[in-house]
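#onboarding

Welcome to the new folks! Below is a worked example of what a typical request in this channel looks like: someone posts a single protein sequence, and someone else replies with the predicted structure as tokens. Don't worry about understanding the tokens yet, we'll cover that in week two.

Example request:
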Amino acid sequence: MSNKRTPLLLGIIFRITLIIGACSLLLSYLSAYIDPTIFSIPLFFGLYFIPILFLNIILLLIALIYKSKSAWITIVTILPAILYSERFYKINNGNQSDYQGDNIRLMSYNVGMFSSSREELEREKNLLEIEQEILKQQPDLVAFQEVYLQNETDIKNILKGYEYRTYHL
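Example response:
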């Protein structure tokens, strides 16, 4: 009697594992369409799309080796991965001519309240060095961190060549 229960119990556990793996893969597909600010749980499944896909492939191989009738669960959930995999992982063959959009150069700069600890530069001199570096890199968009301005209107004096500015504290 115990010999019959063990394979039955393992079969049930295996089917539950297949269903959990399939649901995880389906949630990772849906994560591309769900706004994470509204419902954030699918976001984590989308981040782990590749490992979840590999787990499902391994489960499929195990199901095929043991000739399980539950293999169809994994087959049905893996098939859409052909369509969705490029949303999560882009394979680049080194040819940039496939890209159809515009390029934007973004620069994120931690300005440390425009002060320098290395040479005790005064604030204006340090600000000038930061401005020269930004002009040298020529980004389309610049984001500053650790900005401290005594007056919010001082932002207009920084990088006069950049027409659009916003300041958020």
